[in-house]
Amino acid sequence: MADFNSLCEKYFGCCDFYEILKVDRNASEKEIKKAYYRLSLLFHPDRVDDDHKEIATEKFKALGKIHSILQNPDKRNLYNESGQFDDEMDTSFNCMDYWRNMFKKIEIKDIQKYEQEYIGSDTELRDIKRAYVGGKGNMDVILEMVPFSNCDSEPRIIDIVQKMVDNEEVEYYKAFFNESKAKKMRRHRKYEKEKKLSEQIDMEELDKQIEANMQKRVAEFDTFICDLEARYAPKTKKKRLSITDAKKKNKKSK
Fold first, then answer.
1. pLDDT category, 136, cuts 50, 70, 90?
2. Looking at residue 155, what is its pLDDT?
3. Closest listed residue to residue 59, CA positions, set 135, 144, 131
4. Rounded Cα–Cα distance for residues 132 and 126 (Å)
5. What's the half-sphere exposure (Cβ side, CA atoms, 13 Å) at 83?
6. Which of 43, 119, 130, 239 has the fewest C-beta atoms lying within 10 Å of its C-beta?
7. What is the DSSP string of 59-112?
């Protein structure tokens, strides 16, 4: 089983908690919370399609764990000193419960607002650079790693990367600038198919479905806890009568 640092490296391209949240190491608790909220909006399991749900869920869980460490002074100090996270520290961590306790119910408009702020920002430029370098110019990887990006974003991303190459910020990758037509066509066909499906979605109905899903998860979790208590909680023992109580009981029975 991969350790937490390895999972961060796999899903975010690095294992530095501050770099993942895109905050300074001296960031305040408020700044860290804000960064966590914005990123977790992107990967909330109920906000992505089925094809991306598994990866989004893992990212969502990882972000919650990272925030739970950095918002705790003692855990944050230990992490700052060692740069490591002990997986055994939070074996019972529940990302959905953590989210609900931290934030209000997310709505479509929250994600749309963040999308407007994100596109064209310094944060997006850093993400594109990291995805380009990490994926060695693989456009599929870039579109997977950069939030809100899709096939329609390709010309803009190519222009951004070209400027980075011209400024010698990143290496030139032939696979990026001379991508095969077949590979590009496969990606675009898949995108068009998903786009048509998304256009058929009633957003109000989606909100209701998300709410129903969350209520179902809460109910399932409560049932699970009750089942555990029924199986493993110590049985209530009959109260042992004191000598005085025993005498009183005997008198009544006579």
1. very high
2. 95
3. 144
4. 10
5. 5
6. 239
7. HHHHHHHHHHHHTSHHHHHHHHHHS---GGGGTT--HHHHHHHHSPPP-HHHHH
Least Cα distance to 170 among 130, 138, 227 occurs for 130
Query: What is this structure's pTM?
Result: 0.46
Residue identified by tokens 């590979």 is 183
Please tell me the distance from the alpha carbon of residue 199 to that of residue 201, in angstroms, as a whole number.
5
Alpha-carbon span 25 to 19, nearest angstrom: 9
Residue 210: closest CA among 70, 66, 110, 131: 110
Find out whether 151 and 179 touch, Cβ atoms under 8 Å.
no
Q: Indicate left, alpha or beta for 31 from its phi (over 0: left) and psi (-120 to 50: alpha).
A: alpha
Q: CB atoms < 10 A from the CB of 63, how many?
A: 27
Longest CA pairwise span in the chain (Å): 103
Report the distance separating Cα 126 and Cα 118, nearest Å.
Answer: 11
99: buried, middle or exposed (CB in 10 Å: 19+, 13-18, 0-12)? Answer: buried
Report d(CA 82, CA 78) in Å as an integer. Answer: 6
pLDDT digits (tens, 9 = 90+) for 166-198: 999 999 999 999 999 999 999 999 888 877 776
**Size (the chain), residues:** 254
Region 99-107: mean pLDDT is: 56
Q: List the beta strands (DSSP E) in 81-237.
A: none
